[in-house]
Input
Amino acid sequence: MVQLDWSNLKFGYIPTNYNVRCYYRNGKWGEIEVSSETTINIHMAATCLHYGQEAFEGLKAHGCKDGKVRIFRMRANAERLQSTCRGILMPEVPTELFEEMVTKVVKLNREFVPPYGHDASLYIRPLLIGTSAQVGVHPASEYLFIIFVTPVGPYFKGGFASSNYVIIREYDRAAPLGTGRYKVGGNYAASLAANKIAHDKGYSCEFYLDAKEKKYIDECGAANFFGIKNNTYITPKSSSVLPSITNNSLQQIARDMGMKVEVRPIPEVELSTFEEAGACGTAAVISPIEKIDDLENGKSYVISKDGKPGPWSTKLYNHLRKIQLGEEPDVHNWVTVLD
Ligand SMILES: Cc1ncc(COP(=O)(O)O)c(C=O)c1O
Output
């Protein structure tokens, strides 16, 4: 076991021993290769560098009380990557190849999986890039699929605690028929300026409305939004939102707990009616929302009056964490257990 300060890990990059790689050439995927190089050697005219032909995923493996390691929803991540591949004309990574590579890279770096009890996990980052040279705007003919891992601590320093968001109208992260529903780097480049404005103003993250009408809720930075009222979990239906696997899991758990679930456009003004709200994603699971400010019209939607996470958000969070850690039955087959 490596000696790391497990309780004080940041959500940053720490080198591990190995990554795994697979090349797509002549119309097919090759053999899985194990590498301890942290760099990649690609052509300067590679399509990933010029035309944004790159996609990634993010999922986690958890060190559990019983000494086992549990990987959360890798099949769903494989399927989302395939959807992204169709979106930006890259060859799909087959589910079996994706799962084999994820499992392999976690096993190879077993000693970097944070032990149970430190609020830390092994973050798994699959990356697919177009590598062959192209000067015209066309898809590459060759690709590299690589997966690396790194131990991470909580995304927000305070862990499961409420934070504040600000609606930013000067920047859109994605257009309604653009690439927002795919996990491609361009969406994140488009979000950097808005994110900086939010941080400079002292907010935890930026909050996006739909790009066309600026009327409906889209996303909270790099996380999905949900609101709760009248025993109902409500989350935006929007073509420019990334289909969050955490959100999908929370919807299922909400149903399992007897809540209603609505996936529909949510007008900004409805924010004032929620009893609870949160941002959700792999990094933090749920980040409860205390308030959302709309600086342009001077509105402040205070969702948590006492500044604390609400009861439903807490229940949903705890239940999902327990499934990830093998402390609740995995009734939906979400977890891959490694001994
Ligand atoms: C833009 C965006 N929305 C939502 C999410 C949450 O998705 P997931 O729950 O699959 O991590 C992420 C993180 O992956 C993201 O980058």
In short: The helical segments are 47-50, 74-87, 95-108, 185-200, 245-256, 311-324. The mean pLDDT is 97.
